[in-house]
Write a structure and sequence with these properties.
Length: 325
């Protein structure tokens, strides 16, 4: 089968199409004939040699796919051969066939196309578990989502809006801010020309927001602390601007804040299954009702994967970038 392999891992990595053996599903696994694969920032980090896959995972890039079930390993009963599915993976998605734990395979929500569905697993598993499991977001609470035009950002904005939770967001230019507000953001803040701390304080009458979802890190850590309301929860899912910074913890104490951080890829299949069940129960009906949609920036054929990565690294995209097979 065709699959993407990494040559020269590092800053100048190259992605090339190779012919490799088709994987075989192990007990509890499903083999998926891939229609599309989502591209994530984690893929770039792995290609640069900065984010190795968990033990036992495929070293092929790709953390989410959509497609058709091609074969079942032993002890699989929740899907059948021929089912249209999407799946969260620990690796292996940039290929014609990929294996996935059966617990991490979900049926396509009605109305989602076999291609667009590849944009759903990583974003909505991440958003659900961080906002609702980790941050314990409750009805009526306010949210600030950094990187609102990203795949995770567009998912978070839509999910919060559909559930009646006011959401603010940051983005890097006017076009991205407009896109975020069209998706339901109460206010999109251009972080290049506005101070999100001041804007959020103005919008909330000085109170701040209850929950912040951040993938930036660096100096945003202190600024998030300033932006959070009393009893606020700040969840970091990445540190794209750095993992070290100087922090004044005084406001954390005085406002009784919770500073949280999570990863998804290295969790057990059982943990992912619990998240997936919640996503299918809470998010899929909203997609089927037309209240949430996968936001697709662009699609690239498998052979153009290097261009797809260039698109992501340029930070010009709004929504998900997909590879099609």
């Amino acid at each position: 089968m065709r699959a993407i392999q990494i040559e020269n891992p590092g800053v100048e990595y190259r992605l090339v199409v190779a012919d490799i053996p088709r994987p075989q599903p192990r007990p509890g696994e499903v083999l998926i004939k891939v229609a599309a694969a989502g591209i994530n920032h984690a893929d770039i980090l792995q290609a640069q040699g900065r984010y190795p896959p968990p033990a036992g995972a495929s070293d092929i890039l790709g953390l989410e796919v959509s497609g058709e079930v091609a074969a079942l390993g032993p002890d699989v009963s929740n899907v059948r051969v021929g089912d249209a599915v999407c799946a969260l993976l620990s690796g292996g998605g940039y290929a014609e066939f990929a294996t996935a734990p059966a617990e991490c395979v979900l049926p396509l929500p009605k109305g989602a196309t076999p291609i667009d569905a590849a944009a759903l697993p990583e974003a909505f598993f991440t958003v659900w578990t961080n906002l609702f499991d980790t941050a314990r977001l409750r009805m009526g609470e306010t949210v600030l989502v950094h990187g609102g035009s990203s795949g995770i950002g567009t998912a978070a904005i839509q999910l919060c809006t559909a559930r009646g939770q006011p959401v603010f967001t940051t983005a890097g230019n006017a076009e991205k801010c407009t896109a975020c507000e069209r998706l339901g953001a109460a206010r999109a803040i251009n972080h290049r020309s506005e101070d999100f701390v001041q804007v959020v304080k103005q919008l909330t009458g000085g109170r701040g927001v209850d929950v912040i979802l951040d993938m930036v890190g660096g100096d945003y850590v202190q600024r998030n602390i300033e932006t959070a309301a009393v009893w606020g929860r700040i969840v970091n899912i990445a540190y794209q601007s750095g993992t070290t910074t100087t922090v004044n913890f005084g406001p954390v104490l005085m406002k009784r804040l919770s500073l949280l951080a999570t990863t998804l890829r290295s969790r057990t299949n059982g943990e992912k299954a619990t998240i997936g069940a919640a996503v299918q129960r809470e998010v899929w009906p909203l997609i089927e009702a037309g209240r949430i949609r996968p936001v697709i920036d662009s699609t690239f054929p498998l052979a153009d994967v290097q261009a797809a990565h260039h698109r992501m690294k340029s930070s010009q995209h709004i929504g998900k970038i997909l590879l099609t097979l």
